[in-house]
Amino acid sequence: CKWMLALVLILAEIPLFGQSQNLSMDELRTRIEQRYTVLPIQNGIVLSPKNRDGIASVEISGNTVAVNGAEVTGAELRTRLGDDAELILQLSYLMPSERQRLFTVAGSSNSSQVSPRPGGREVRPRRGRRKDDVIRFLGNVTVSRDEILNGDVVVFGGNAQIDGEVKGDTVVLGGDLKLGTESNITGDAVVVGGTLSRDPGATIGGDVQEVRVGAGARLGEILRNRGIFRSGMLPFFGAAQTLVRVGMLILFACIVMLAGGGLATRIGDRAAAEPVRAGLIGLLAELLFVPALVMTVVLLIITILGIPLLLLVPFAVLGVLIVFLIGFTGVAVRVGQFVGPRLGWTNTGPYLTTILGIVALLLPLLVARLVGVFGLNFIALPLLAAGVLIEYVGWTVGFGAAALTYFKPAVAPINPQPPTAAGTPPPMG
Questions:
Q1: Which of 85, 234, 243, 412 is most buried, taking the most CB atoms under 10 A from its CB?
Q2: What digits encode the pLDDT tens for the residues 165-216?
Q3: Measured distance CA(178)–CA(237) in Å, rounded
């Protein structure tokens, strides 16, 4: 009986203790509005911190709480938000209708909509969710106001219009990036060869990088300039060709990351662990490829019965080229992981890391081509030689690492890096 009485007293005290920690509805609303911008949505609210780095949004929907799009427990919420966690938890205990009324007392008559902004426009609740990444080549991408994209946006040779939310990085190469009033990018925003137009109400959680070609000219305008067809513009053709080739490499590398990002990462780890061995294997394969191909064709012709198999030779060559591409992508990923933290770019997504690695590998070649446009050949030629050598080493080591990964997949790389680590990756070689 004594144990039963003690248990009853403990259970009776728990609600009283919890009630002593709760704030009144007015105090709760005041503290929330001091720290966050409130955006009511269907069946919940989204809170955008006014002065907190690393937290782009806190969404309360039903009885769940999500930070930057990922659901969290009470302990995780306290770790990430500190003292603000108690306010968020108290909000999550309210009924959805109570939360809506709490933040619409100030003037909005419709609980499913946000109070009008100074411009007079009302924000529609964001309902649509797209979980995949968006990669577009020579086309435009639009994320409307009612969309939440749980991935990255990569556009080459086109424009991107972001009016909704992108829970990742947004990269635009050779086009413009426009961010609307309600746009929210939780990752980085990178524009190369174009312009960034950002509404004052737009939110970017990561870094903003804008690289323009020439005197702010767009890549598409340069390629359409008729002046390049005049005599004496051959260096410009070389630079344009290199830029296009880099763009194509970025496109194909992003496709590789989309289809087999894990394989490319393992190949990059193997290249970093055994660069000399991978390079020697890749070099040997390059030296023996043409003789082996010729001997195979001759043997198929001699045997007569093997003549129909000649139809498979082009597919075999294509397969080898694909292996080269996957290997080069793996090396680019590893180089991007090495270079990114040294430039102050941390927690970058796989696509941005791959693009950064490709640009780093081909940077001497790009600089050589651009310097050659101005006739500075004494600088361009050494850079051109160094760029060709660096790119060749990247392709060769990547192919050798791909072969090592296929034939000896169980060997662990040197100084392996945990996949969730945000620190500096181990040095290559």
A1: 243
A2: 888 888 887 788 988 888 888 888 888 777 888 888 888 888 888 776 544 4
A3: 30
Whether the predicted model's global pTM rises above the 0.70 cut? no
**First vs last Cα of the chain: how many Å apart?**
72
Instruction: State whether residue 348 is helix, strand or coil.
Output: coil
The pLDDT confidence band at residue 395, using thresholds 50, 70 and 90, is very high
Work out the number of other CB atoms within 10 angstroms of the CB of residue 311. Answer: 8
The strand pairing partners of 397, in sequence order, are: none
**Which 3 state secondary structure label does DSSP give 208?**
strand
Give the list of residues 6+ apart from residue 287 with CB closer than 8 angstroms, or none.
none
DSSP state of 199: -
Radius of gyration over alpha carbons of the chain, in Å?
28
* pLDDT tens profile 99-157: 777 776 444 433 344 444 444 444 444 444 555 678 887 778 888 887 888 888 888 77
Domain ranges within the chain, ordered by starting residue: 19-124, 128-217, 225-407
Q: Are strands 64-67 and 134-137 parallel, antiparallel or unpaired?
A: unpaired
| Closest by Cα among 322, 318, 335, 324 to 265 | 335
Give dist(CA 108, CA 115) in Å, integer. Answer: 5
* Interatomic CA distance for residues 399 and 417, integer angstroms: 22
In the structure encoding, which two tokens stand for residue 405, read together? Answer: 């990964």
